[in-house]
Design a protein that fits this description.
Layout: H1 14-35, H2 38-45, H3 49-56, H4 59-79, H5 88-103, H6 106-118, H7 123-132, H8 134-150, H9 159-180, H10 187-206, H11 220-227, E1 237-241, H12 246-262, E2 265-272, H13 288-320, E3 324-330, H14 336-341, E4 347-352, H15 364-371, E5 375-379, E6 390-394, H16 399-412, E7 417-423, H17 429-432, H18 438-446, E8 451-456, H19 463-473, E9 478-482, H20 488-494, H21 497-503, E10 509-512
Parallel strand pairs: 1-2, 1-4, 2-3, 4-5, 6-7, 6-9, 7-8, 9-10
Antiparallel strand pairs: 5-10
Helix pairs in contact: 1-2, 1-4, 1-6, 3-4, 4-5, 4-7, 5-9, 5-10, 7-8, 8-9, 9-10, 12-13, 19-21
Length: about 525
């Protein structure tokens, strides 16, 4: 089982906080959000209001902490289920029964009722519940399905969807009736029936034998499906910058899935200020006492954020069964070498346009140029689940674009379609030769990548716009470019392809130089 090397000092007041949280959970489950009050929690916990406010901020903060704590704690029993060495029907039966035991437990149904009642008012808390509860359960089951598929025991097109559908069939109307307070008269029989039906239907479906290979060979689409879990072997160490924002969470989840496909070690990196002064409001403090208060407040907030990010990252490690470690960079104190030392890896995954967790004075292109490590950028606007199914390679016959192709090979090998795009080749015949793109297509073929070469003209429009138009036309989910094939200083002054693509990135981009 994968582990994480994230370490922290034991928080002061942890035991007291847990006691207050337990009392608050009872109060909220008994009275709902509207009927619960801080005074009721004070009475139940035997605590002071100041203690509650210092730990949780206000009533909504307390409610958020309850949702997060209960979601994690109540779902842990499902994540620890072990079906190693158990036949598939028996394993699915054990999984289904454990899932129903958890979802039908009184505390879990109480939390679910709170989410149903207050989710519209507090959508962020509802998302937290699903991320830490149902979504983690689906991810855990999907991991089991992948293991069975790697062993040739089952065939599933999408383990995540199959896992969600199976658990949905297991719960069915039974869970809805229980939450509404009208469970079947014979609950035990209803549970057995739900489990047997779900196992029979899904067990038969996923155990269908895979069709034999085509006489003409394996198609790119078949290669992508069969290699989803096994062919990304070049990357053995991946770094991802992340924070406690939804964008940071999304980038971390993608990096974890990528690390699982590569069987790679994943390094989570989170940058914090480390000293007062990075926030504009810090400059308004006057006097020793006020400055001390700023320092203490900033340090407490940074430690709390780092702890939250570390916990989420540890959950990713567990859910994806990967080896991880978590590092904190003090961006205000660290010099350039401290940051680059953390990037002894094969690939860096970043969010875009504001990379979560990256020191504020750094950008994706600065990181690329300083480290030499290829960077995979995941735009904030990108919501698709896959990256690299249909790849577009921007080829200008430069050293940088050739380097990008080499660095992107792990993804290109598993893509269903790869297009090598050349813009205005006739303007530089001495570089591209008589048959532009033929040489790089042959190179890719030697690496088991069947690429289609496409030549186009910009017609006076910027090259970056031409590339992005082709990304849209081909429904690409990955753009591979060699960054700054002209000098970066000239691009900054006159504009350039790399800067324009980074400014308007609609899909993930793999940058290399």
């Amino acid at each position: 089982m994968a582990g994480s090397t994230f370490h922290r000092a034991r928080p002061r007041g942890e035991m007291r906080r847990a006691q207050i949280l337990q009392a608050a959970t009872e109060v909220f489950l008994e009275n709902g959000f509207g009927g619960a009050t801080i005074d009721l929690v004070v009475t139940r916990a035997g605590a002071s209001k100041s203690s509650i406010y210092s730990f949780f901020g206000d009533k909504e903060g307390l409610f958020a902490a309850i949702i997060e704590d209960c979601s994690r704690r109540l779902m842990e029993a499902f994540l620890t289920i072990d079906v190693t060495g158990v036949g598939i029907p028996n394993a699915l039966t054990q999984i289904a029964r454990r899932y129903l035991e958890i979802t039908l437990a009184p505390d879990v149904m109480g939390i679910f009722r709170l989410i149903l009642a207050e989710g519209i008012r507090f959508p962020a808390h509802a998302r937290t519940f699903f991320r830490l509860g149902p979504d983690r359960n689906c991810a855990h089951l999907a991991g089991i399905l992948r293991t069975w598929q790697r062993r040739g025991l089952i065939t599933v097109d999408d383990p995540e969807i199959t896992a969600a559908q199976f658990l949905g069939a297991v719960a069915g109307e039974l869970h809805l009736r229980a939450v509404a307070g009208v469970p079947p008269a014979d609950l035990a029989t209803a549970i057995d029936d739900n489990i047997q039906n779900a196992v029979r239907i899904f067990g038969n479906a996923i155990r269908q034998p895979r069709a034999p290979p085509s006489p003409t060979g394996v198609t790119p689409g078949q290669r992508h499906a069969e290699a989803e879990d096994t062919m990304l072997t070049n990357w053995k160490s991946i770094a991802v910058f992340l924070d406690d924002t939804p964008q940071g969470e999304k980038v971390g989840e993608y990096a974890a899935r990528l690390a699982r496909r590569c069987e790679a070690h994943l390094v989570g990196i989170h940058a914090i200020a480390g000293f007062p002064g990075e926030q504009p409001s810090d400059g308004f403090a006057r006097g020793q006492q006020a400055v001390g208060a700023v320092v203490a407040r900033r340090r407490a907030a940074e430690e709390k954020t780092a702890l939250a990010v570390g916990r989420r990252f540890a959950a990713l490690s567990h859910d994806n069964d990967i080896s991880t470690e978590f590092r904190v960079i003090w961006s205000g104190r660290a010099d350039r070498d401290d940051l680059l030392t953390s990037l002894r890896c094969d690939l860096v995954v970043l969010g875009h346009p504001t990379p979560p967790g990256l020191p504020k004075n750094w950008s994706a292109d600065q990181l690329l140029i300083a480290s030499g490590v290829p960077v995979l950028i995941i735009p904030e606007v990108w919501n698709a689940g896959t990256v690299g199914t249909r790849a577009l390679v921007a080829w200008n016959a430069s050293r940088e674009s050739r380097r990008a192709i080499v660095d992107a090979l792990p993804l290109l090998r598993t893509a269903q379609a790869v297009t090598v795009l050349i813009v205005d080749p006739d303007k530089r015949p001495g570089i591209f030769g008589e048959n532009p793109g033929a040489d790089i297509a042959l190179y890719l073929a030697h690496h088991d990548v069947q690429a289609q070469v496409q030549q186009t003209t910009a017609n006076g429009y910027p090259i970056a716009d031409t590339i992005l138009a082709q990304v849209a036309a081909q429904n690409s989910d990955l753009l591979v470019i060699g960054a700054y094939s002209h000098s970066r200083s000239s691009e900054i002054i006159f504009g350039g392809v790399t800067r324009s693509l980074l400014a308007h990135a609609p899909v993930p981009i793999l940058l290399s130089r």
